[in-house]
Design a protein that fits this description.
The complex is a heterodimer of chains A (about 280) and B (about 130). By secondary structure, chain A is α/β, with parallel strands linked by helices. Chain A has 2 domains: about 5-25 and about 245-280, Orthogonal Bundle (Helix Hairpins); about 25-240, Pyruvate Kinase, Chain: A, domain 1, CATH 3.40.1380.10. Chain A is built from 5 helices and 6 strands, in the order αβαβαβαβββα. Chain A has a 5-stranded mixed sheet with strand order 3-2-1-4-5, sandwiched between helices. In chain A, helix 1 (about 5-55) packs antiparallel against helix 5 and helix 4 packs across helix 5. The model of chain A has no long low-confidence stretch (mean pLDDT about 90). Chain B folds into 2 domains: about 5-85, ATP Synthase, domain 1, CATH 2.60.15.10; about 90-130, ATP synthase delta/epsilon subunit, C-terminal domain (Single alpha-helices involved in coiled-coils or other helix-helix interfaces), CATH 1.20.5.440. Chain B is about 25% helix and about 45% strand. In chain B, a hairpin with a 2-residue loop joins strand 2 and strand 3. Classes of the chains: A alpha/beta (about 280), B alpha+beta (about 130). Strand 6 of chain A pairs parallel with strand 4 of chain B.
């Protein structure tokens, strides 16, 4: 059984840990709210992009566009979006396991990994996978320009024929309690169902619809990468908030147990001292 | 004069939303003007300045880095990857990115430089400098 002094030190250190986890939870909550706002703020752009795209799909045959071209998937690029930091429960490991499972599926093909976020690079680097490219420090200050950098690089390599298929692997922010590992084909572009039901307005196109689509599609890819970054960022803070909340609660439970044990120990020592004194007094009397 | 709604959206936020009277935009086939009741039009924009007159008589300038304009009967939506009001533009930053891009271009003899990208960066920076003042 631990001595009273040992118990006191443990209680003090757990109290300190609890203060830290509690503070981290509050910071994560604030940052999550900001990240959620960023997702909301991107929505009008997404809707408008979608609308224009539908409009164009009515008048353009996409089969001839380079970014829509299907090739036999011999070389596959997986873009793995994880966080830079930990202390977020199973947020990164869940996604990495999912990617690992996918790697096994494509065992025959030549798969290269492009990582965003340090955790994914470490996970696969430690398991002996070659990281074709790593984008560092994306989440410190999340800017659309970074998404463009990543997307343009992927697009360029796809057009050059260095990759036949590109997947985005990221955690989708469903709710505070749920971040779902998501696989999304980025390239070649999969034409969406129901794209033919555009509005009735007869638009004049300037320049031609083909040329418009050609400038629009790279923007759509930029935006998809951007969305993956936003979702992943919000998901990270949600996961961290939940993990820190649990840690704070656990620390509370431990404190309760330890305090009880400490009281028992103190009572025992008092009883012991009393017995000593009484025994001594009796001996003198 | 009859007005119409203008909305300028970027991936980071909705930059502008309001009632305006007229709009001048840098179309990829040349600058064009829009008043209320324009015919439906879908056009791409090049890097340039967007100018519009608000209903109160205010005139606003914005720098856009290319994008799309969808012109409908009563509303115009501009889709751009970046759009900044003249007073929001960081002139110092634009100037330094212009210099960096020019240095990249100048060193293309020795190094592998993406010329198109550097030229795009220069025109974006010049556009910001023009609008920002």
């Amino acid at each position: 059984m631990a001595t009273l002094r040992e118990l006191r030190t443990r209680v003090a250190s757990i109290k300190n840990i609890q203060r830290v986890t509690n503070a981290m939870q509050m910071v994560a909550a604030a940052k999550m709210r900001r990240a959620q706002d960023a997702i909301e703020a991107a929505r009008p752009y997404a809707q408008q992009l979608d609308r224009v795209l539908r409009e164009l799909h009515q008048s353009v045959d996409t089969d001839e566009q380079p970014l829509f071209k299907e090739r036999a998937p011999e070389r596959i690029a997986l873009v793995v979006v994880t966080s830079d930091r930990g202390l977020c429960g199973g947020f990164n490991s869940g996604l990495c396991r999912r990617v690992q499972a996918e790697l096994n599926v494509y065992a025959d093909a030549q798969v290269e990994l492009v990582t965003v976020g340090r955790k994914g690079r470490d996970y696969f680097g430690n398991r002996g996978h070659e990281i074709a490219q790593h984008h560092a420090d994306v989440f410190g200050q999340l800017e659309f320009a970074r998404a463009v950098d990543i997307a343009q690089d992927l697009t360029r390599r796809f057009i050059a024929g260095e990759t036949d298929r590109v997947f985005l692997c990221y955690s989708e922010f469903v709710s505070v309690g749920s971040q779902v590992p998501t696989f999304q084909q980025l390239l070649p572009i999969v034409p969406e169902e129901g794209l033919d039901e555009g509005s009735a307005a007869d638009y004049a196109f300037e320049p031609s619809p083909e040329a418009l689509l050609e400038t629009l599609v790279p923007r759509q890819i930029n935006f998809q990468v951007w969305r993956a970054l936003l979702e992943s960022n919000a998901g990270f803070f949600a996961a961290q908030m939940t993990a820190m909340d649990n840690a704070t609660k656990n620390a509370g439970d431990m404190l309760e147990d330890l305090t009880r044990e400490m009281n028992k120990e103190r009572q025992a020592s008092i009883t012991l001292e009393l017995m000593d004194i009484i025994g001594g007094a009796e001996a003198v009397a | 004069m009859a007005g119409f709604a203008l909305e300028i959206v970027t991936p980071e936020k909705t930059v502008y939303s309001g009632q305006i009277v007229s709009l001048q935009a840098p179309g990829s086939e040349g600058s064009f003007g829009i008043m209320a009741g324009h015919m439906p039009l879908l056009t791409s924009l090049q890097i340039g300045a967007l100018r519009f007159a608000e209903e109160g008589g205010n005139e606003a300038w914005m720098a856009v880095s290319g994008g799309f304009a969808e012109v409908g009967q009563e509303r115009v939506t501009i889709l751009a990857e970046t759009a900044e009001r003249a007073d929001e533009i960081d002139v110092v930053r634009a100037e330094s990115s212009r210099q960096r891009a020019e240095e990249r271009l100048a060193s293309r003899e020795q190094e592998d430089v993406d010329v198109v990208r550097a030229q795009m960066a220069i025109s974006r920076a010049l556009n910001r400098l023009k609008v920002g003042g």
